[in-house]
Each structure stands twice: as structure tokens, then as C-alpha cells.
Design brief:
The protein has 341 residues and is an alpha+beta fold. It folds into two domains: 147 residues, Probable inorganic polyphosphate/atp-NAD kinase, domain 1 (Rossmann fold, 3-Layer(aba) Sandwich); 174 residues, Tumour Suppressor Smad4, CATH 2.60.200. Helix content is 31%, strand content 31%. It is built from ten helices and 15 strands. Strands 5, 6, 7, 8, 9, 10, 13, 14 and 15 form a nine-stranded antiparallel sheet that branches. Strands 2-1-3-4 form a four-stranded parallel sheet. Strand 8 and strand 9 form a beta hairpin. Helix 6 packs across helix 7. It is globular, with a radius of gyration of 19 Å. The chain starts with a strand and ends with a helix.
Length: 341
């Protein structure tokens, strides 16, 4: 079990509740490590096989999951066979968004998720999922140039100054980033190829996101759905806007942030929205360096990124047939809002 003590909801009290649930799993023996610096989880699991451990339990957010995935799978090399004797991946979500765990079908709170995980461990309930790659590294949830990377960079800066990464802070930073992007939008050129051979060519889009699952992210309990068909069993989903200016650009951003869940504004956003599903390879290019993010972590500035999808890349403990998180009832969403407040 690898624990990130800097994740949003991790503390001693949580472990006093979580550990007894896991210890009740018959035959389970755990060895626990805490991370001490960015990339530490990746270093800890590098080179491990199933002869060492049957499973790695990542206690943290999507960034911790990303580190574990990259440590287990190593550098991306096209054409290289993936190792088939890796430990399976399990997650207890203690981050701010926890997209990976929630998209797999786990509850959003750590204690509830641990109860579900304990049952998965007891029944050895595993499945294989697709993962995305960017250049020579892996991502599990999402990746993108420009606006989303700018938001994450500024939220990280706020956290370094002692502020928590709450949904309200993400929303506030997103609005300011959108206003900046309207004044000086990124110019992202896109070339994508889908599994069925169809292609997407876009010139100078101000916003382009890639997701490995559905939803793209969460604002608190609210799922942000960009590509409804997307899942861990398909290629990458692309979502972009062709223009951020005017009322159409504003409505497009509201759609991205989940404000148009009933799609009443679909006719307004359709002309400015770029959607492409089951992409196998995506090339994103900018005329000048822009921030790039993967799994909610700012990765620096780049002019060109190549994204790909890899089928059945890793084995995870998860419900076999999770109910889609974006189809939860209003009552369930209200319940989660109360619990997270």
C-alpha cells in the first residue's frame, strides 16, 4: 500500500477507519510505504512483479495513480510487449477529484471506497483497462494542452501557498483562466485517427482535451461529461472548442463545466464543439510552447505532444459492471454534496 500524505483528505483518523476494513480480508498481508517527494510512488514500484506483490493499493488522488502506473509499466515504447506479470492496481481515493477511482465505479469517499475494495479483494474481482500515453509516458484519466493545464498549474500554486484544492477553487481558477484564454487563446493544431479509420483535422483550436474515460473530471460530486461514449474499454475521447469568444464561446465553456447537463443549449454549442471518439493516435501541435497536463498534474510546456491508446494495458481491482457516475440520481448527487461539504 502506497500512501500520499499530501493528498487532500488523507490523515491519521482516516487510516484508523480504513485499515481495519482491509485487515478483515482473509489472507491479506500488507506492506505500507508513504511517499516523500513528487515521483516517489513511481520510484517505489519500479521493477516490481507479481512475484513481489499481488497488488499495489494507491492511497491518494489521480496523480498518485499516475505515478504508480508509470512506475509499473515503465517508459512507453511503441511495439514493445507489455509485461503480463505486473501487480494489479487498486485505489483508495483521497485526492480532490479522484476521477480514476470514481470512473471505475468506486464511491467518492475513502471509507466507502475501502469497503467496496475489500469486497473486490475477497472475490478477486479484476478487469483490464485501456490506458493513454503521451510521448513516452502513460496517463490513466485525461491530458490536454492549454486551458486545463493552466488551471491545474495555478491550483498547484495555490496549494503550495497553503490553500486547499476545493471544487470552488477549481471553478474560480477556471473562470479566470477562461478570461485570459479569450484574450490570448492557444492555437492547437490537431490530427487524430480513430479505430475505424476516420480522421480529425483541426487548425488553431483554443481548447482541446483528451480523456481516457467518462466523465472527463468532477467538480465535487458533479461529473463533467465531454464524450458520453468514452470508457476504460475504448480509445481516447477528444473534446475541443473552435472559438472561445462571444456568447457561443461562453456557452461552450458552460457545457464543458457541466452546466448544460440536459443539453438545452446543444444547438448553440454544436457549431463550436469538437468531439471525436475512440481515437488511437492524436498529434497536438502549438506554434509556441504551452502548458500540458496529464492526470491532473502539470507536466511543463511543450510545442508538440503525441497521444496514443493501449488496449488492456493494466489490471485493476474494480466492480465488473459499474453504474456510470454521470447517470446518478439527483438524490445521490445531493448526498455526496452534503458529505463533502
Amino acid at each position: 500500500m502506497i500512501c500520499n500524505p499530501n493528498s487532500t483528505s488523507q490523515n491519521e483518523a482516516l487510516f484508523r477507519q480504513v485499515l481495519p476494513s482491509l485487515r478483515e480480508v482473509e489472507g491479506l498481508t500488507m506492506f505500507s510505504r508513504f511517499t516523500h517527494y513528487p515521483g516517489h510512488a513511481e520510484d517505489i514500484v519500479k521493477g516490481l512483479t507479481r512475484d513481489d506483490y499481488d497488488a499495489i493499493i494507491a492511497v491518494g488522488g489521480d496523480g498518485t495513480v499516475n505515478e504508480v502506473v508509470n512506475g509499473l509499466l515503465g517508459k512507453v515504447e511503441p511495439g514493445k510487449d507489455l509485461p503480463d506479470n505486473l501487480p494489479a492496481l487498486a485505489v483508495i481515493p483521497t485526492g480532490s477529484a479522484n476521477v480514476f477511482a470514481r470512473a471505475l465505479g468506486f464511491p467518492p469517499t475513502p471509507l466507502e471506497a475501502t469497503h467496496v475494495l475489500a469486497r473486490m479483494l475477497e472475490h478477486d474481482s479484476r478487469r483490464r483497462i485501456y490506458l493513454g500515453t503521451w510521448n513516452d509516458r502513460w496517463f490513466a484519466v485525461n491530458a490536454g494542452f492549454g486551458l486545463d493545464a493552466d488551471v491545474l498549474s495555478r491550483v498547484d500554486r495555490a496549494r503550495e501557498n497553503g490553500f486547499s484544492a476545493t471544487p470552488l477553487r477549481y471553478l474560480s481558477v477556471s473562470v479566470r483562466a477562461y478570461l485570459r484564454a479569450r484574450r490570448k487563446p492557444p492555437r492547437i493544431n490537431v490530427h487524430a485517427t480513430a479505430k475505424d479509420g476516420s480522421t480529425l483535422e483541426v487548425s488553431e483550436a483554443p481548447l482541446m482535451l483528451a480523456s481516457n474515460t467518462n466523465p472527463w473530471t468532477f467538480l465535487g460530486p458533479l461529473p463533467v461529461v465531454t464524450n458520453p461514449r468514452n470508457s476504460f474499454d475504448e480509445g481516447l475521447g477528444l473534446f475541443g472548442l473552435s472559438d472561445l469568444t462571444g456568447i457561443h464561446g461562453l456557452v461552450g465553456m458552460l457545457h464543458l463545466m457541466g452546466a448544460d447537463r440536459r443539453r438545452w443549449l446543444n444547438k448553440v454549442t454544436k457549431a463550436r464543439t469538437i468531439q471525436f471518439d475512440d481515437a488511437q493516435e492524436v498529434i497536438l501541435e502549438c506554434p509556441e510552447p504551452h502548458r500540458f497536463q496529464a492526470d491532473g498534474e502539470s507536466e511543463g510546456e511543450f510545442e508538440k505532444i503525441t497521444l496514443r491508446t493501449v488496449r488492456d494495458a493494466i489490471e485493476v481491482f474494480a466492480p465488473q459492471d459499474p453504474s456510470p457516475p454521470h447517470k446518478r440520481s439527483a438524490r445521490q448527487i445531493l448526498r455526496d454534496l452534503i458529505r463533502m461539504s
